[in-house]
Write a structure and sequence with these properties.
By secondary structure, the chain is α/β, with parallel strands linked by helices. It has two domains: 199 residues, no CATH class; 291 residues, Beta Complex (Beta-clip-like), CATH 2.170.270. It has a seven-stranded mixed beta sheet with strand order 1-2-3-9-10-18-15. It is globular, with a radius of gyration of 26 Å. The protein binds S-adenosylmethionine. It holds the Pfam family WIYLD. InterPro entries: Pre-SET_dom (IPR007728), SET_dom (IPR001214), SET_dom_sf (IPR046341), SUVR4/1/2 (IPR025776), WIYLD_dom_sf (IPR043017), WIYLD_domain (IPR018848).
């Protein structure tokens, strides 16, 4: 243990929130905290702890300082894959920094510094100017243009679309530190070859609307980013009847007399009644294993109900609807809400507090387009995100799909039918679904996997006991490692050819894939287990 107060002070400086921000920013460039720490320590010394100088211009000084010795002793400073504290670098993570890897083909590139453009474009843009800068162009107008990479304009550091290109048109002029002349002919050739490759990085696709940023990394630029508007929560499109009023919440349906954290009570309060007198969450914020297991086993229990006149079939053919295909009766989580006396940190308020995990949208390499992964390990029962989108009636959805002229990849709509069994004669404005195609959150990028996905969707009652409307929350079914793709089972029936959205050719890779079109899978033998959505 050190007794030198100065040493203690310097230790704190290396772990305070500004240092953590600097590590995060450098991590986005694939530079680990361990690599940054000594450089940062030196800079703090040199600049007499003047953080502004270090943070200015998106940590430009720090980046410069990091790359400085690399130019002098390239062999000693080869870029490594970013390493999580105390963790081995996962394979996929190494892949993320392809342009800087030190494999033979990339060795030369690994020795060069980033251009001004790269530095500006690859780091969070807020630090230098001390303000948030959310480009309108990055929201409803779509995050990306379709220009070929060589034509793409350089984005200013204020822009949320950031691009790290290995192409370095301004290398010679790059801050005067690494001149293209200083590279061998081989290096220049490698750079020229690599000109075509570039990596797109978006610091936060949520436009600051979530508690945590959701980044986007595209190493291939082979796929355009879909045009959609990021919304952190559900929004009514037009006709949906979502009746949120305090009057609907009965006194026995809330815990007005509670205070603090309901999970710490010796006798669970009224809000636990829905889940059998026990809360679905444990005090560590995770779903209880028993509750999770019951939810996972729901489809096997075959607890389906059949409507006399199914709103889904009615939306397809009002005069002569087909017989109902059945709706799985689901277990609900009920969270405390506004009439409850507990506070926002109550353990029975998880989904309503929103995202808390570091998620990243990335381009999958299995033909599924964009996907989502977590940048941190997620224990079993972790809340990942809710599936947010426009709340539509089934008729609105049907019309939307049928009238759609676009060939865009349609996100799969979710039917909010988890409680249809308790309803008789649902009216159209009560038979609701969520569509995240044009307005949605990060969940709209989560791909489907048949039967053995690592996420499960669970209905959550928050604002209203009226279960025509509820939240659909995604939780981990098992421990999920950082950088593993997150998937959930959309419940698609690949044999249902009457569905207005033509099912995609499934590339989930599961041994239990249900899509018979996929060769080499056991899909034909595997029965459809779920029927929660995607009717
Ligand atoms: C909710 S979106 C998921 C995000 C999507 N991958 C994207 O790039 O925007 C659903 C769409 O992703 C694609 N997709 C999802 N899971 C897939 C799978 N297992 N196999 C093939 N395509 C998949 C399909 O095109 C589907 O319509």
């Amino acid at each position: 243990m050190t007794t030198d107060p100065r040493a203690a002070k310097s230790y704190d400086a290396m772990n305070d929130s500004r240092a953590i921000k600097a590590y995060d920013a450098m991590k986005n460039l694939g530079i680990s905290k361990e690599e940054v720490k000594p450089v940062l320590r030196n800079l703090l010394k040199v600049y007499d702890k003047n953080w502004e100088l270090i943070e200015d211009d998106n940590y430009r000084t720090l980046i410069d300082a990091y790359f400085e010795p690399m130019e002098e002793k390239p062999e000693e400073h080869k870029r490594k894959a970013p390493v999580e504290d105390n963790d081995k670098p996962p394979k996929t993570q190494q892949k993320c920094i392809k342009p800087f890897q030190t494999s033979s083909s990339h060795k030369l590139l690994s020795q060069r510094r980033l251009s001004d453009d790269e530095r500006m474009s690859s780091l969070p843009s807020m630090a230098a100017r001390g303000k948030k800068s959310y480009s309108a162009a990055a929201s409803s107008a779509g995050l990306y243009s379709k220009e070929p990479s060589h034509q793409r304009k350089n984005m200013s550091s204020d822009h949320h679309q950031k691009k790290i290109t290995t192409h370095n048109g301004s290398l010679g002029a790059s801050n005067g530190n690494l001149s293209i002349k200083s590279l061998s002919k081989g290096s220049r050739q490698a750079l020229a070859e690599d000109k075509k490759k570039s990596v797109r990085y978006v610091d936060d696709i949520t436009k600051g609307s979530e508690n945590v940023k959701v980044s986007l990394l595209d190493e291939t630029e082979s796929e355009d980013f879909p045009k959609f508007n990021y919304i952190p929560g559900n929004v009514i499109y037009q006709c949906a009847n979502v009746n949120i009023s305090l009057a609907r919440i009965a006194d026995e349906g809330c815990c007005a007399d509670c205070s603090g954290d309901c999970l710490s009570l010796s006798f669970p309060c009224a809000c636990s009644q829905e889940t059998g007198g026990e809360f679905a969450y444990s005090s560590n914020g995770l779903l209880k294993e028993k509750f999770l297991t019951d939810c996972i086993n729901e489809p096997q229990a075959h607890h389906y109900v059949y409507c006399k006149e199914c709103p889904i079939e009615r939306s397809k053919n009002e005069s002569k609807p087909e017989p109902c295909r059945g709706h799985l009766v689901r277990k609900f989580i009920k969270e405390c809400w506004r009439k409850c006396g507990c506070d926002m940190q109550c353990g029975n308020r998880v989904v309503q507090r929103g995202l808390s995990r570091k998620l990243q949208v990335f381009l999958t390499d299995q033909g599924k387009g964009w996907g989502v992964r977590s940048l941190e390990d997620l224990p079993m029962g972790s809340f990942v995100c809710e599936y947010a989108g426009e709340i539509l009636t089934n008729t609105e959805l049907y019309d939307r799909i049928v009238l759609s002229t676009s060939n865009d990849r349609h996100t799969y709509p979710v039917t909010l039918d988890a409680d249809w069994g308790s309803e008789v004669g649902l009216k159209d404005e009560e038979a609701l679904c969520l569509d995240a195609t044009h307005n949605g959150n990060v969940a709209r990028f989560i791909n489907h996997r048949c039967n053995d996905a690592n996420l499960i969707d669970i209905p959550v009652e928050v604002e209203t006991p009226d279960r025509h409307y509820y939240h659909l929350a995604l939780f981990t079914k098992r421990n999920v490692s950082a950088y593993e793709e997150l998937t959930w089972d959309y419940g698609i029936d690949f044999d249902d050819h009457t569905h207005p959205i033509k099912a995609f050719k499934c590339c989930c890779g599961s041994a239990h894939c249900r899509d018979k079109k996929q060769k080499g899978t056991k899909s034909a033998k595997t029965k459809k287990l779920k029927h929660t959505n995607a009717h």
